[in-house]
Amino acid sequence: MIQPFERKKICLLTWGCQMNEYDSELVRSILKKEDYEFVKDERQADIVMLNTCAIREHAHRKVYGRVHSIRHERGKRNPVMIGILGCMATNLRQDLLEDRSLKIDFIAGPDSYKRLPQLIREACDEGQKSYDVTLSEFETYSDVYPSRKEGVNAWIAVMRGCNNFCTFCVVPYTRGRERSRSPENVVDEVKRLAAEGFKQVTLLGQNVNSYRYEDHDFAYLMDEVSKVEGIERIRFTSPHPKDFPDRFLELMAANPKICKHIHLPLQAGNDRVLDMMNRTYTKQEFLSLVDKIRAKIPEIVLTTDIIVGFPTETDQEFDDTLEVVQKVQFDSAFMFKYSERQGTIASKKHPDDVPEAVKTERIVRLNEIQKDITARKNQAHIGQVHEILIEPPAGDKPDAHMVGRTDGNKLVLLKEDSPLEKRKVVFFKIGDMAKVRIIDATPHVLKAIPV
Ligand code: 5AD
Ligand code: SF4
Fold it and tell me: What is the mean pLDDT of residues 385-403?
């Protein structure tokens, strides 16, 4: 008897940054067209794909751990194909293919997702290990419409890759050179998103404000996207401090749809360290940029990334980072211990010589200072009225609080303690812009009632 065709089931696990989440949406779209089915539970899958991150040691170890635990759980009687996608694929292709204990079946780098159907067929049907980690100068996936989860925000990659070569960073090697999609192509996708009911778009890129297509820069693109009806808010991440022309800041200030939040990675506050990192700005230039941004957009919310313990960084040099943090008063900060990455300029030129205990001590000090600043910044909102965009609640508990975000991207929890508050909150739907009054604040979240 002929067996009915059974669709192969794929479980796709994603680590790392927003670009990786977005790439997983591209991969889902590419493979759904080939009649693969996606499942959440890896135990039900014929193929498990791990979309990986190589940016820090931590992310890297987690992926190795997960591959081993999948192999162990499934054992010999219930085998599964395993594929590695994303940044680790490019960076570690040799190790992955040679490590017999890992038993990887196929590998696809960030520019090779259109070849996935073929790679999977070669691995499944012909039993051969297959891989493609070629980096492209042109691939932007502008012809693939991502298979997105429902919600209010859609991510949309407008450029890929990085030309900056910060010496600590593996991204230029794993994701290749910068390339941008045409403004028309981006705007068409945003129109389609608006028609589907998305209220917010977040433009994504490794250096999103270095976007350039022919004569068009990032300010032009943002302006064009903001003309799309139905989209209420536009965000972008992550920019590089080197690309903030006045024209762009003036557009941000004047355009009500562009959210007043900039994630502005500092990385370090000392000139010698910044130079070794190849960040292309000094402490003073960074501070002047912050002053310029605040002069043009007084209500701006600024967040940042900081690395502690870059090779040879001394305690006095780290104090410069603390000084910048105190001076700028970021609304929040992501903090990382320097982690040596294979292939980077820093890994070739400078031994990772700051002891782990010193890195820990620095990150603890930094964290304490920033926690106070964040708490104070959040408390300053108490009593203010904000318009928040209501999002699907985090987690799937039926009694989860309604949540939303301010224009500056702060998470707001709607309190519904009194019967009156409950009645008002009931009227809000996901995707609504709701006016609320902030009544309480912690370093992580604002609490509000409807007005
Ligand atoms: N070690 C520690 N942090 C790093 N980042 C990038 N590369 C490294 C590294 N090798 C951090 C930077 C960047 C963020 C995404 O990750 O702060 O902005
Ligand atoms: Fe990495 Fe620097 Fe490029 Fe950001 S700008 S992706 S930190 S090399």
Answer: 79
**Among protein residues, the one whose CA lies closest to atom 4 of ligand 2:** 206
- 60 in ligand 1 pocket by Cβ < 6 Å? no
Q: Does the predicted model carry a pTM greater than 0.90?
A: yes
Query: Measured in angstroms, how far is the CA atom of residue 97 from the centroid of ligand 2?
Result: 27
> How far from chain centre, in Å, is Cα 89?
18
User: How much distance in Å is there from the Cα of 435 to the middle of ligand 2?
Assistant: 37
Q: Residue 74 and residue 94: Cα distance in Å, rounded?
A: 25
Verify whether ligand 1 is closer than 6 Å to residue 133 (CB atom).
no
- pLDDT band for position 395 (cuts 50, 70, 90): low
Mean pLDDT in residue range 160-166: 96
Q: How many residues does the chain have?
A: 451
What is the CA(162)–ligand 1 centre distance, in A? 14
| Spans of all domains in the chain | 4-132, 150-259, 282-378, 385-450
Sheet holding 301-308, edge to edge: 261-263, 301-308, 332-337
Q: Is the pLDDT of residue 312 over 50?
A: yes
Nearest ligand 1 atom, CA 17: 15
Measured in Å, residue 59 CA sits from the centre of ligand 2 at: 17
Q: What is the DSSP letter of 208?
A: G
CB 48 within 8 A of CB 11: yes
Predicted confidence (pLDDT) at residue 285 exceeds the cutoff of 90: yes
pLDDT band at 230 (very low <50, low <70, confident <90, very high): very high
**Nearest Cα residue to atom 1 of ligand 2:** 169
Q: 385-450: what fold?
A: OB fold (Dihydrolipoamide Acetyltransferase, E2P) (2.40.50)
**CA-CA distance, 103 to 94, in Å (whole number)?**
13
**CA 167 / ligand 2 centre spacing (Å):** 9
Structurally, what CATH architecture does the domain formed by 150-259 represent?
2-Layer Sandwich (3.30)
pLDDT of residue 2: 43
Alpha carbons within 13 angstroms on the beta-carbon side of residue 4 total 2
| Ligand 2 contact via 200 beta carbon (within 6 Å) | no
